[in-house]
C-alpha cells in the first residue's frame, strides 16, 4: 500500500494550518491595535482638538492663551495637550510675567499659527483672557 497519496493532503493541511496560525497571530493583533488607535483618535483626541481650536479661535486680543488653562479645558497632561495643540497648528510662546509666575513654564502660552505666524515674536506676549 502506497502512503504517498494519503500523506500529501495531510502534509498540505498541516502546512496550511501552520501558515494560517503564523499569519493570524501577527495580523490579528496588528488589526486590533490599529482599530484601537483609530477609536482613540475619534473618541478621545478629536473632541479635545475641537475644544482647543474653538478656544484659540475665539481668544481675545492677539489670540494667546495660558497653557495651564488649555490643559484644564481639555483634561489632558502637559505632553498630551502639547501634542494636540501641534496637531491643530498652534504654536507656543512666553507670556508676560505675572507676580504669581514662579518659572518660565508658568508663562507658557499658545496661539493658532494662523493668528500668530512663526515670523512674529513669541515672547512677552499678553494673554487677554487674564484681563477678564
What can you tell me about this protein's structure?
This protein has 132 residues and is of the alpha+beta class. The chain has helices at 4-57, 67-74, 78-87, and strands at 65-66, 90-95, 108-112, 123-125. The protein has three helices and four strands; from the N terminus they run αβααβββ. The model has no long low-confidence stretch (mean pLDDT 88).
Quick structural gist:
This protein has 132 residues and is of the alpha+beta class.
Order of helices and strands: HEHHEEE
Mean pLDDT value: 88
Most strands sheet: 4 strands, mixed
The shape, in one word, is rod-shaped
From the alpha carbons, calculate the radius of gyration and give it in angstroms: 27 Å
Count of distinct strands? 4
Topology, pairings included?
Layout: H1 4-57, E1 65-66, H2 67-74, H3 78-87, E2 90-95, E3 108-112, E4 123-125
Parallel strand pairs: 2-4
Antiparallel strand pairs: 1-3, 2-3
Amino acid at each position: 500500500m502506497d502512503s504517498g497519496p494519503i500523506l500529501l493532503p495531510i502534509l498540505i493541511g498541516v502546512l496550511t494550518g501552520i501558515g494560517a496560525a503564523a499569519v493570524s497571530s501577527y495580523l490579528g493583533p496588528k488589526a486590533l491595535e490599529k482599530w484601537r488607535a483609530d477609536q482613540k483618535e475619534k473618541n478621545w483626541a478629536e473632541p479635545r482638538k475641537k475644544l482647543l481650536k474653538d478656544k484659540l479661535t475665539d481668544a481675545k486680543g492677539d489670540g494667546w492663551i495660558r497653557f495651564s488653562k488649555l490643559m484644564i479645558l481639555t483634561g489632558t497632561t502637559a505632553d498630551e495637550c502639547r501634542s494636540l495643540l501641534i496637531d491643530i497648528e498652534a504654536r507656543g510662546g512666553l507670556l508676560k510675567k505675572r507676580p504669581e509666575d514662579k518659572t518660565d513654564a508658568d508663562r507658557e502660552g499658545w496661539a493658532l499659527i494662523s493668528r500668530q505666524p512663526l515670523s512674529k515674536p513669541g515672547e512677552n506676549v499678553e494673554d487677554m483672557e487674564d484681563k477678564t
